[in-house]
Fold each of these.
Amino acid sequence: MNTSRTELANQAANAIEALDPSCPIHALVGFDGFIDSIIHVVNQRHSMAPDDYDRIKTIPEFAARCGAAAGKSANLEMVVQDVRFGGNGPLLSSALGSLGTIVTYIGAISQVDDWNRVDPIYKPFVDKCERVIPICPPGRTDALEFEDGKIMLGKPESVQRVTWDLIIQTLTLETLIEMFESVTLMSVVNWTLVAGVEGIWKGLCRDIFPKLSPNKDRRLFLDLSDPAKRTDEDIARAMKLIQELQEHIPVTLGLNLAESGRVASVIGVEVYNDEHNETLSSMVPQAAARIREHLGLSCIVIHQHTGAGAADDHGDSGWFAGPYTRKPRISTGAGDHFGGGFSFAQNAGLNLGQCLAAACGVAGAYVRDAQSPSRDRLIEFLRDLPAPE
């Protein structure tokens, strides 16, 4: 992929603009759901006025403050900036819906006292979907945001109710088959926090995919969602199940940089050898290609805050330098918006480099605007793509 960054961004913008609006992508996404509190951590207060403080700006500063409390104690003030809908599935679906995808969402987005009704906090998300089906209440996340990243403090107890059996009980198998038959993009995310995801993958292989009509355009996008807390045995088992999914449908596995290193280590693939002083722009596509080849998947895409690389089963690979900003308005959900942008572009028929540009564009616009970009906003953003800071 030798095309310049600017040329590739413009090619992606032109390809997206040329899409026929009368033939939208139809997607089915699930199955998690969270309510996110976006939080700043106070470093120094100047007065007790709500906004009269300096925040802790970086994760190392936060870590140092926590570390200094060892053997003593600490009282850290959290200032809630916003409370909004979250979860990997809803955020990815928000990106897709804003780009014009016809989205059906199934997941943990119910009211606590009435599982048949959607929690009102999800209304902005519901407005972007054709259909949403609540199956249980969402989990909760405290998202501590810093200028160099975020720390997600998840409370996933509620989403453990999400199982294949619950989905079948809510919708019936016949209805699910009809729903999957009508879409070309499918996505199951948040394996790390939702214990029922593996059962859902098995249910798809056993009960759904064998009963669908042949369609070469169907794709499945997966996102593990930071498996640092899971064991090597867990990850190895998940990779085996993902390989079984690939036997039925082309699979794109989205990973961040840390996840790709962990997966590579578990499956015995060497990546990111610092001895050769290689740059991310060369190391990441190579890592994607090695992981993809070893697992036999259709595509591996690896993202981090400065850019993204990918490799597919056509032999294509490449890197795109994203529009990194040091001061995002929001960072929670950036990876999900990257995944939404990549899977949208992939299903729209863009080539691999253009998919990377589109995905980085969606994430870049989102962190600047604090909302999912429309298709017009994405096209505008790509044509005037900011230089990395």
Amino acid sequence: MTILCDPATRAGQLSPAVGVVGSNVITAATLAEADRLLAADPAELLVVIGAAVDLDEALTFAEALRFERPAVGVVLQREVLEIGTLTQALRAGVREVVARDDLSSLADACARSRALSAQVTGIPQPGTGERRHGQVITVFSAKGGCGKTTLAVNLAAMLAAGGERSVCLVDLDLAFGDVGICLRAEPVRTIVHGLGMLGHVDAAGASSLLTACRPGLSALLAPVEPGDAERVPASLVSELLDVLPTMFDYVVVDTPSAFSEHVLAAMDASHHHVLLTTPDVPALKNLRVTLDMLDLLSYAHDIRSIVLNRSDAKVGLTMDDIQRVVRSDIRAHVPSSRDVPISVNKGNPIVLDLPRHPVSEAISRFAREHVLAEPAVVAAKSKRWFR
């Protein structure tokens, strides 16, 4: 069952979004009534507070509930999503804040809250399934312009498979991240809003930072304000990448084109390193430096996959030339196409827009053969003990 605290005129509209198969929705006109309903049902684990409820009253209710019944999740609706409101709500213990008329985001928020409650109580709720032990996949290229973000976005969309699996795409290019633009996702909540939970990040806190993008696909977006990138410590990245795999089947991390403490934190947490290059001398040289750096830092070879983007480009280099530089197997050859920037400009991954396109098929084949088909491995951080 779910308690919905909202005027009766909107209860019928919201009930389909907050309910779940096998679960009823009961409405309460006031927070006092919602409190009585909670007291009468110790098994209740979700309260949705509508936009008509006063913000201060809602936050007071959530803060008290956090200590009295920490397994109960609170999802808050507001007419307008404002940064100040999100910060206040997070501090009060509200799990998610969604826009009043965004019923899709409301349904996703309720589902995530139920999943978290299942983890807290150890009792799976309807529709939540078992606790996940997801894999972290970091996509990296030491040279900009290779198509790294495009690969990360399309790989994440392919793995999500329209909701068949749950995937979180993390934009770790904190200064110039483009994941939000590629998915046309509004950056209302970003990683910088997690600073207040540094040192004690949990699934509820991580969930409050996410943006729902597609069925099965959520994103942790990069900051948008100048200077915010410098405020995000690598320790926050490590904490988030410890928690997110317990919430998702796959966590795909898009990185900047340079080694940093943040990138190394992602590499440490990863079960799979996807290293991207293109058939030109500067990109291949940087890939060789990257491979040598990963060897120096004692990362395992068996978790690496090299992907050659724009593999059909006629630029005077043969495949033998490329192999001599790389000295490793190339696991995917992604052709070049004008349809790729078109899909980026449309804000729809090409694997969803044109699933039978040669680029889509190359990415899908790589995901099937080298991500989905391979058994889970130990995260890289257990290998690299001396950094």
Amino acid sequence: MDAAATDQPKVNLYDLNRQELGDFVARLGEARYRAKQIWTWMYTQRVDRFQAMTNLPRATIAKLKATATLGSLGLVAMQQSRDGAEKRIFRLRDGQLIESVLMPYDDARMTACISSQAGCAMGCVFCATGQMGFGRNLTAGEIFEQTMVFARELAARGERLSNVVFMGMGEPFHNYDASLEAVRQLMTRLRVGARHITVSTVGLAPQIRRFADEDLQVNLAVSLHQTDDARRSALMPVNRRWAIDELMNACHYYVEQTNRRITFEWAAIAGENDTADEAHRLGRLLSGLLCHVNIIPLNPTGNYGGVPAQKATIKSFSRILSGYGVGSTVRVRRGIDIEAGCGQLITVVTRRSPIDSRGLRQGDASA
């Protein structure tokens, strides 16, 4: 039966690899070489509608429109920070909402911070996404498409997407297969270099070991935030499953297998983990490991009362770490005024007056 005559849901072409796209085109009754043409339009020309594929016959375009989509993310709203960060809220086909952020830097980097899940099951108490709970995993195509949206917009402005970080909503290693497939799509379809891609995890030790064996040059970031099991478990419930010793064993395995540096993320919370004693404990924990600490002054979220550490305290903290041979930097905070900073992403359905109260500009909500 012709695929156009069925009642099957439309296929998101971003979910298909080259072979699968060829098979799909063949089921439409088209020659397989059409798949190569479509692929070029999607990933070289980066068009967002079938009508733009000008070397395809009208009949082929009609079949594609009847059976497929070029993506499945509906833009609900967008917002721009005073510092230039841009946030997008997308609606998925089933109504779930996710957020993605584009961050410009003075050295001309354009970094997309993308989501791997709608919500998050990890429950980190200082993180807005963790506070909202878990919706579902994203498909590889849904993860990848967030970067395609930004890449397309940047190309229209004469710019290019240079970096991608899996630090948006969700835990990438809780959605391991789709996240890794999206990483590979970034490298092959958008030509983002592996060393310009970072995957962040709250510390799923088995997946860190698995990631070490992937033979990828992708960067790994691990959210640590405490050196004591009881205090880390209170902050990050995942620690009750994989305690610090087990996590660090996995991190050492990663470095041994890859010879790549790990970044440890440290949300600096005043009076909680910014003391000199804590800096010494962290220095001892990481001493001798090929790593770097990314200190992030805590970003405010609605249901957590902690406040960011002071600049002078962070400077002292960093100086103590250096005495153990552990390098550190303080992350430049981006998008705080539009709740686009680290740990601030939360979909608008969980908030009162979801659009207007936040000053968001309405986008095209069509899928």
Amino acid sequence: MHEWALAEAVIKTALEVMKKEGGKKVVEINIVIGKLQTIDMDAFNFALGELIEGTPAESAKINFEYENPVFKCINCGYEWSIESLDKLLGEDEIEAIHFVPELSHIFIKCPNCNSPDFDVIKGRGVYIKSIKIQE
């Protein structure tokens, strides 16, 4: 379950930042989740709750922000975004991308020139936007 590994990375990073900054407690963690990443939020929240227990981050507020995918066509240079994969792709395609994000190139094409050659500029992955620490 990659949600557990993502949660471990978030908590480990927050605690490392706290220690590096000389803090005593993690107060808030702001996490950005790319919509192209499609993770199971129930599993992710459960893992965060389990892993944070008994740490200096135990009472931290965890906030989520979702980032729409933005693509840039390698062929024509056109940039576009997708608000929701559900409007563009079926459930099977979304699940395939969930496990192998590189498959997005099979299912998504440039709306300007129909090329499958594009870069994902935003909206992929999970990262910590900010961490608030109590000194």
